[in-house]
Amino acid sequence: MAAPASAYKDRQFLAVIGDEDSVTGLLLAGIGHVTQPPDSQKNFLVVDSKTDNAAIEEAFERFTSERKDIGILLINQHIAERIRHRVDTYTSAFPALLEIPSKDHPYDPEKDSVLRRVRRLFGE
Amino acid sequence: MEGLLFNVNNGYIEGVVRGYRNGLLTGNNYNNLIQCETIDDLKLQLGPAYGDFLASLPPNPSTSTLAAKTTDKLISEFRYVRANAVGSLAKFMDYLTYGYMIDNVALLITGTLHERDTRELLERCHPLGWFETMPVLCVATNIEELYNSVLIETPLAPYFKGSLSHQDLDELNIEIVRNTLYKNYLEDFHSFVNNDSEMAGTPTAEVMTEILEFEADRRAINITLNSFGTELSKTERKKLYPSFGRLYPEGSFMLSRADDIEGVRLAVEGVNDYKTYFDQAGMGQSSTGAGNMSGGVGGDGKSLEDLFYQKEMEISKGAFTRQFTFAIVYAWVKLREQEIRNITWIAECIAQNQKERIGNYISVF
Amino acid sequence: MSGATNREAVFPTRQSLGLMKTKLKGAQTGHDLLKRKSEALTKRFREITRRIDEAKRKMGRVMQIAAFSLAEVTYAVGGDIGYQVQESAKSARFRLRTKQENVSGVFLPAFESYTTDGNNDFGLTGLGKGGQQVQRCRETYARAVETLVELASLQTAFVILDEVIKVVNRRVNAIEHVIIPRTENTIKYINSELDELDREEFFRLKKVQGKKQRDTAKQDAEMKARREKAEKAGKAEDDKENSGGGDILGEQDDTDVIF
Predict the structure, then answer these.
(1) Which of residues 35-64 of B touch A (CB under 8 A)?
(2) N or C: where does chain C have the smaller number of CB atoms within 10 Å of the terminal CB?
(3) Which residues contact B282 (CB under 8 A, 6 or more apart)?
(4) Where do Acidic residues bias regions lie (chain C) (predicted)?
């Protein structure tokens, strides 16, 4: 039932998919991590209007399934909206998926996949 | 004496710039702006001043696009003035752009260091700091090539030469590189306004010296304050202080030895203005020693940086009381920049519902 | 027989009856325990969901403040620091640690944030101007991220508890609605089968007894008839045939009476 310890003991980073301001702020807080070359991987993705959904999905996939060192994935709500089907079907406990507000898009609890689950459970 | 021949070449420009200056938002305008409920309202209020430039904005634009559009207006006006400028004024205006160029080059250096595609960076560069050969810099794939092309292709070569080698670009923090360049730039600008045959001894030299000295002091103080707790050593720090200004040389020397805010305060004691700012910002007293770090949020006291901006605006405003001077171009650019910052700030406050801090803008008219 | 299909395939013997009774008892105890576990978890779960709701709202505010402090930086620096920050990020200063918490036998992982020392990628950002705002912004964002980490812990707990509660409830329901009725049905079935056997046996005995009684009655009657005949004969030849008394012991036809 409970995930085995190996599933999360190495998870020590946060990852973020967000717009430039959110990513900048979170990086300032010190969550940014770039792994050693040669295959240096960043744990953040800046999404702007030019980024296509496939790239977001790919990053989402990379942070949720491929990398085993990420404990929490932060994603801007309006970006989560763009890959909503993926976010809604994501149910694993690790990494935890958090939808965060961005500067231009205030937080809307109605859209949050977890909060919607909460609501559904209590029949609200 | 200078009045005799100034208008021959530069009278038109002066007139245009004074006209632009009158187009700046006044306290009254700002009062209207801070009443706005939405960005659209704000856009409407800005209509008379910015007109066409905001017309293409979508409804409820983001603050960054708003800032970009307002900057566009500054750019186009600046380009117009620059196109009409001749002789020393043209050179003066080129000097004005070097500051932005330094930022752009720093950006490109960062990109090259991390092996990014620097072409993407071009659109991030500040348009005022754009120079024709900039795309050439993007061809460089490693830092040594970049260094050489900067030396060859850009007007910044003198600032690199002598103080930075290509190894430095690789090893030093980009901020140190940037500030070294800026220091060289300020010194060069300073000597230019004081030694150029057309400007020496004119009101231009007088006003610009005041502005640049202030700028130099501000940078020295800021660098000192911001270096506490970082790996920047005192000797390295000392190298970043411009070698002129009201604090130079004694104040600079004391700054270079300062260990804490109190030390900075002692260093600026000699200049009354700065001393007042320190007192106003509540810095330096031992009780609120770290006040600049923790305080400020929610407090209505102005921070030191705010006071510096305020001072800069006042000097710029004062520049317009003089006639026959190029300094008004500089002052106008600075005033307009502050105006853009103000608009962005107000827009942010509106967009993020933080109305209580909306009054934090700086208006001098 | 009702529910004949809903019972276990056992032979209706006393031994399996005993087994079934033990099983029923076990199922009931298990049901009680699981029910209690489920209730404990649900309580915890509700508490967590409530806290998630609160935390999400709090996050909304905190992130807003943080975003605002970034706006202050943009104002003070007078430019965009985004790119520079992105490029100078090297090693995470802000990291996570996971620990476990035991709630009714379920291990809920919780995240804990910690900052590594001496790791300062952005110490010099805004050196020329805006440095103080940058520092302040970093602190604000660090606090915001802490809130996010807290929320992430809650949310992970939520996801895991959700799963666990579903499993537990499924078990409770299985025991309550399948195993217990089934066992009860089986017991009922065994009991009724055993009763049936009892009744058959009883009937058989009755039958045997009836037959026996009839047989005895018949013999009695025969004996009586013979005796009467003998008496009559005795009276006739009273002294001559006195030896017939030996038959009185009934050695010839007297069978045992079985009840």
Answers:
(1) 62-63
(2) C
(3) B288, B291, B295, B301
(4) 250-259
Does the CB of B173 have a partner CB in chain C at under 8 Å? yes
**pLDDT at residue C30 above 80?**
yes
Q: What is the dihedral of CA A59, A60, A65, A70, to 10 degrees?
A: 90
**H helix or E strand, kind and range, residue A56:** helix A53-61
- B349: nearest Cα among A21, C65, C61, C76: C65
Distance, CA of B217 to CA of B183 (rounded, Å): 11
Q: Is the pLDDT assigned to residue B284 strictly greater than 60? A: no
| A116 or C218, higher pLDDT | C218
Give every CB contact of residue C87 below 8 A, 6+ residues apart in sequence.
B110, B111, B113, B114, B116
Which subunits count as partners of chain B given 3+ CB pairs below 8 Å?
A, C
Per-residue DSSP letter, A37: S
pLDDT at C32: 92
Both structure tokens of B87: 């002789």
Within the 335-364 window of chain B, which residues sit less than 8 Å (CB to CB) from chain C?
337, 341, 344-345, 348-349, 352-354, 357
Q: How confident is the model over B259-282, as pLDDT tens digits?
A: 888 888 888 888 888 888 888 877
Residue B70's nearest CA partner among B339, B328, B310, B362 is B339
Q: Which of C67, C87, C131 sits opposite B222 (nearest CB)?
A: C131
Q: Which residues of B touch C123 (CB under 8 A)?
A: 229-232
Q: Are C112 and C55 in contact (CB under 8 A)?
A: no
- On whether the CB atoms of residues B163 and B240 are closer than 8 A, the answer is no
- The pLDDT value given to residue B269: 84
In the A/C pair of chains, how many CB contacts fall below 8 A?
175
DSSP one-letter code for A34: B
